[in-house]
Amino acid sequence: QVQLVESGGGLVQAGGSLRLSCGASGRFFSIDRMAWYRQGPGKQREFVAHISSGGSTNYADSVKGRFTISRDNAKNTVYLQMNSLQFEDTAVYYCNMYMYRGVAGWSDYWGQGTQVTVSS
């Protein structure tokens, strides 16, 4: 079994900052890419940011220059530093990891989501 647990969400005023964390636990051998997605009210889930096993990053245009994704491989954890938050950033944020589990092969795993609410 694999479990991804997110933390760090909450209520913040526009212009403020939050840092999300997502740690993985369970039986797996390695983690390739790590990413964050979000789903706003009445919207489909959308890509936010991605970091490769080598540290290369990619961001949605809407968050470039404001959000920073990073990872700590020793802790099997991915972070999302969110600065200059805007009302439009209000959403449930989900972490995603692509893991190798041996006989089970490679699979995508998702966290349960953490709510970020930005007040205008």
Share in β-strands: over 45%
| Contiguous runs where pLDDT drops below 50 for at least 5 residues | none
Largest sheet entry = 7 strands, mixed
> What structural category arises from helix and sheet content?
mainly beta
Average pLDDT score: 96
Summarize this entry quickly:
With 120 residues, the protein is mostly beta strands. It has strands at 2-7, 10-13, 18-26, 30-39, 46-51, 57-59, 67-72, 77-82, 91-100, 106-110, 114-119.
Please, could you describe this protein's structure?
The protein is mostly beta strands and 120 residues long. It contains no helices and 11 strands. Strands 2, 4, 5, 6, 9, 10 and 11 form a 7-stranded mixed beta sheet that branches.
